[in-house]
Amino acid sequence: MEEKGKGSERWSAAIGNLSEMTSNLESLQKLLLKKAVFVDEETFAKASLSSEQARTIKVLEQRVETLERELDAAITAAARARSEKRQAEAAQKAAELRSQEITRELENTTKVFELHMEELRAKQQEIAKRDSDIKVLEAIIQTLGGKESSSSRPSL
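The structure corresponding to this sequence follows.
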């Protein structure tokens, strides 16, 4: 029996809710009738078209704003890239100048080295000539020394 009591309470609450909803709908309908504007189909179609165009314009405006931001970012990136390129070109030019300077230093060092080598060869030739002269003189001395020692020896 208790279940019957609870079931009937639920039904009464549901019926009460339905009646409240009905009165709310009636109030809404009265409000719409007072405030609603009725137009012919052509006017409604034009209004719908205008509304659709307004939505399309809004979407396109947002797209334009997005593209403008992307363009600004691309311009900034291009400016940064140009700046980096100028820096790289300046560094390359400095490296080329340093390379030319080192090449000139190497060429100068090579010329000095060649001059020193020529001087060394000339001195070696001079030493070789003097060494040859010394050997000739030694041979002459030995020859003369050998004759003197045989003439200064008593004959037997």
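Helices lie at 2-35, 41-152.
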